[in-house]
Amino acid sequence: MAVTIFPCSMANAQAPVSIQEQLAAQYKLVKMGSDTSGYSVVEKGTLLAIQKGGILAVPYGDQNVLANKYEGGTIHAPGGLSLMGRKSIMGKFGKEQTTHLFAVGDKVYPMKIDVNVAKDTVTLEIVACDTCNKTDPPTYNKANVVFQFPKGSLGNASAGGVEDTIGQVLSISNDDQQQGGDQGAQQQGGQQQGAADQGQQQPADQPAAEPVSIEKGMTTDQVEAAMGKPDKKVTLGTKQIYYYKDMKVIFLSGKVSDVQ
């Protein structure tokens, strides 16, 4: 692949991409909204599946979000004074305390990502995907998951290592990839029907075209040859992300590492 090099001074060189920016590229945040019928998902984010139980959440309308710490392979849910303080605050408004424990397999969206290098923490605020979890009536329970890294380690950590730790609790769901595939299949079916309506259907003796296949290890050139030019490209050091209408292709060192 041809590369054009533009001369630049050291003063104009780009600063290293931060972990915050790399995580923001990996995890698309959900957009929430509300109307007279209540809260709803306006734009879906990256669908995550909970891998460890014990994350304590509250309804979306609550102002205070409970902090659940993940450290040493264990979820430490808030308790004691944290919950007592919440109960007293809710009592002032004449409301009962309402909390919810997420179960393994529940689906959630990320709402906010915060990296604090000084405290060696990465915090993900999550909200339930009620349609995925078949929750009726919807509550959109939310929680904070604070990933505590060893002291002094986050400043030198790689984004991939951080994502691996997050994945121990909140892994990117295969359902999200399946939904993208379903949308792509629907779009392809519509295009084929349109061709048939215009009398452009392939002759019976001509075999149907093979479906586009993206495989791990393919280069950027091979992906572009199969899929065409992407709608958008994001480059984060050795990591590149190609955004197509129905999928996202992630490259590491110029080769496909994941498709979402």
Concise summary:
The protein is built from 6 helices and 15 strands. The chain is an alpha+beta fold.
What would you note in describing this structure?
This protein folds into 2 domains: 16-174, no CATH class; 213-260. Helix content is 25%, strand content 28%. It has 6 helices and 15 strands. It has helices at 19-26, 81-92, 130-133, 159-167, 174-197, 220-227, and strands at residues 31-35, 38-43, 48-50, 56-57, 67-71, 74-76, 100-101, 107-116, 121-128, 142-148, 170-172, 232-236, 239-243, 248-252, 255-259. The protein has a 7-stranded mixed sheet. A 4-stranded antiparallel sheet has the order 12-13-14-15, covered by helices on one side. The protein has a two-stranded antiparallel sheet with strand order 1-2. The longest helix has 24 residues, at 174-197.
